[in-house]
Amino acid sequence: MRVNGRNIGTQVDDLYEEIERRAKDEARRELKLVPFEGAAFSNVRWKLGRINIGIHKDLPTHAVPHALAVALHHVRQRLDRYPDVHRPYPGGSEEASPVRTTLRELVLAPEAELHIAELGLDREWETQQRHDAMKQLIEQAPKAWQRKGNLGNTFAALQYARMELEHPPAMWRSLRKQMRERMPAASELGAEVAKAVKKHGWASADACFESLVESRDLLRLKREALIGDRQSGQMR
């Protein structure tokens, strides 16, 4: 198949066709691939009558299949009524948007990877990008991020937790040591969050919900994040 004008091979063809069919049958929406510019590798936007899957236009061709597969499984998660993270209204701040996004990805990204593993897609480029970004975060984090309760500290704690859960151990080991030295409060909190996610896991929608709720509570984010349970229709 072609993405952003480039031929990416056939590794994701079957998955795309499956999600395309489900989106049409279950959500009455068409899938549409669009170029994307932003901080993430991919982006999913539900619109009236369609679902836009944005793939970053600057991704190298060999990295596109994995980014697309993750995005497709985020569509599948919504179709399967997996939980989501929402901004509380009328409360909640726009400044906390990256924190809410990172909280969501902390649990739903590894759930997606669980299904993608059998495809044997190339993750090396993405892994190196995340490694370099984490190294930069540790080295350049503002002093305010050292304070407990600061949104920057919370963001850093979430990044620590995600790396603890997903990053290759050999690559994470040195970064973890540096972060514990430079950002001890965020590191301690991140380790607690990672432990909570490991306890509940992500093997089902219910497990993801419990992981998100406990992580949110550990981070003291109740004023900034509501966890939506699509199984029951309730917010917590």
Give a structural overview.
Helix content is 55%, strand content 14%. It has 236 residues and is α+β, with helices and mostly antiparallel strands. It folds into two domains: 2-79, no CATH class; 93-224, no CATH class. Strands 3-5-4 form a three-stranded mixed beta sheet. Strands 6-7-8 form a three-stranded antiparallel beta sheet. Strands 1-2 form a two-stranded antiparallel ribbon. Helix 7 (184-200) runs antiparallel to helix 8 (205-218). It starts with a strand and ends with a strand. The model has no long low-confidence stretch (mean pLDDT 97).
Top keywords for this entry?
single chain; 236 residues; alpha+beta; 3-stranded mixed beta sheet
Give the distance, in angstroms, between the N- and C-terminal Cα atoms.
40 Å
Residues in helices, as a percent range: 40-55%
Shape: globular
According to DSSP, the number of beta strands is 8
